[in-house]
Amino acid sequence: MPALEAALTQRVDLIDALLPQTQCTQCGFAGCRPYAQAIADDAVPINRCPPGGQAGADRLAGLLGQPTLPLDLSRGLPGPRRVARIDAQVCIGCTKCITACPVDAIIGATRRLHHVIDDLCSGCDLCVPACPVDCIVMEPAATPWTPHDATAARQRHQARARRLVREERDDRVRLARKASDKLEALSDAPVDADTARKRAVIEAAIRRARERLAGTPVR
């Protein structure tokens, strides 16, 4: 089984290496890697990546020994690379675009102007619907998206995923500690029905927090 799993992982790696790593989700998956996994499992066709274009679909066909398929245009239209632009006069610093960006190409802070780093932007468009004040537009990029860009974007996307897991775990630890502090504070409260109810609610919250922590992978 380990040899089979290694072979399957290698197959996914090879497919993923041919995808553009824009992480745009137009294929119907949360990113390029999940789409590569679905292709490797023969669960979806190879022609659902607009950023990769027809050339990308043809490369996947060659890798997998499959007939080439015309690009599925219902997923979006291929075209030159675009990058996001934020209107400084309208941006309210809500950070929603930062949260939406799958490759960490946007910098800023709460209630501060956000800025897109052109060289890192994959043109995924995911920040556009996330903006509550419609201050983001997509414009033609000065340079095309290269294999080097794709490799760097994959690394940033993976680093972002690891960071989000750590942040989620840290938040759960913080909430569990806060609940424990509240429970300890109740030790000085009068022993009555109201205190018993509060204690039961907090103890249940602590149990849920511990269960969630036990189920969160550490990366």
In short:
The chain has helices at 2-18, 32-40, 53-64, 96-100, 127-130, 147-185, 193-215; strands spanning 82-86, 106-107, 115-116, 136-140.
Question: If you had to describe this structure to a student in words, what would you say it looks like?
Answer:
- The chain has 219 residues and is mainly α.
- The chain has three domains: 2-75, 3-methyladenine DNA Glycosylase II, Chain A, domain 3 (Orthogonal Bundle), CATH 1.10.15.40; 82-140, Alpha-Beta Plaits; 167-215.
- It has seven helices and four strands, in the order αααβαββαβαα.
- It has helices at 2-18, 32-40, 53-64, 96-100, 127-130, 147-185, 193-215; strands at 82-86, 106-107, 115-116, 136-140.
- Strands 1-4 form a two-stranded antiparallel sheet. A two-stranded antiparallel ribbon has the order 2-3.
- Strand 2 (106-107) and strand 3 form a beta hairpin.
- The protein is flat, with a radius of gyration of 23 Å.
- The mean pLDDT is 90.
